[in-house]
Design goal:
Phosphoribosyl-aminoimidazole Synthetase, Chain A, domain 2, 2 domains, five-stranded antiparallel sheet, 9 helices, globular
Length: 293
């Protein structure tokens, strides 16, 4: 069976269902990050990549290629309620590439690292016969051993998204800002049951959160916060928004919304629906799938 017949989620599930895990692994493949225990502390582990022609175009500004590569992993650390720590960078590049271009990619990596206080500690550089490939492996920490997984949602939980959705190809997919401070604040102030970042689009990512929590969902697509010129379909399917999607108990709704407005007045917070025992498990459309036809 070809990958295009399975789809991305099925491919990942089949490849990871029998991985070796010892008792140090508290959360394995299938969430925004893995969680392992080392020396009595929990460590978040994440790797992500960008590939020329898939995540950016050849004519893209190389500085923002580097920024995006680093920030994709940072966004996943944030979605677990964590603090990013140390990064390893692996790249494969054609030998006829101009060094000035590669230096600008690294400038973007370093800018993101400085902005989010990440140590760039090493990696690997190799020759590629084809498209440019850039991977960032990142560690993170969580306070008091608490992390937020996708699987903690409960029936009746209110679903929220930060910011606005849709239209990422207008340039936002290259220059987004991971919601690290916002996630820290949420986790420290409220009982966040489940959380993830929106990288493949709400239509793909919300079903993943609901499935991990063994629940369905109800969403009012008319309530989706959209960028100017976007329709609900864009907010569901465009992907690469890198906003937070999270679930909290209904009793904290009023307090959360009031405090959020005071703490982050320039960033929108929108209630879009709820998790339910019996409800939708997918949308009619879907977000980005690497192996879709």
């Amino acid at each position: 069976m070809k990958l295009s017949e399975l789809g991305e989620d099925a491919v990942v599930t089949r490849l990871t269902r029998s991985l070796r895990l010892d008792n140090r692994v508290k959360l394995g493949a299938g969430d925004d990050c893995a969680v392992v225990e080392t020396a009595g502390r929990l460590l978040l582990l994440k790797s992500d990549c960008v590939i020329e022609g898939i995540h950016f175009l050849p004519e893209s500004n190389p500085k923002w290629i580097g920024w995006k590569a680093m920030c994709r992993s940072i966004s996943d650390i944030a979605a677990m309620g964590g603090t990013p720590l140390d990064a390893l960078v692996t790249m494969a590049v054609r030998s006829d590439t101009e060094f000035t271009w590669l230096r600008r990619v690294y400038a973007g990596l370093k800018l993101a690292a400085r902005t989010y206080e990440v140590n760039l500690v090493g990696g690997e550089t190799a020759r590629s016969p084809g498209p440019f490939f850039l991977s960032v492996a990142l560690t993170g920490s969580v306070e008091d051993g608490k992390y937020i997984a996708r699987s903690g949602g409960r029936p009746g939980d209110q679903l929220y998204v930060t910011g606005k959705l849709g239209g990422s190809l207008e340039g936002r997919h290259m220059r987004f800002r991971p919601r690290v401070a916002e996630a820290h604040w949420l986790v420290s102030r409220f009982p966040v049951h489940a959380m993830m970042d929106l990288s493949d689009g709400l239509a793909s990512d919300l079903p993943r959160l609901a499935l991990a929590s063994r629940l369905g969902f109800e969403v009012d697509t008319g309530s989706l916060p959209l960028h100017r010129g976007c329709r609900a379909e864009n907010g569901l399917s465009d992907g690469e928004d890198y906003e937070l999607l999270f679930a909290v108990p209904v009793p904290v709704k009023k307090q959360l919304e009031a405090e959020w407005q005071g703490k982050f007045p320039k960033l929108r917070l929108t209630a879009i629906g709820k998790l339910v025992e019996k409800g939708a498990t997918h949308f009619f459309g879907k977000g980005y799938d690497h192996f879709a036809r």
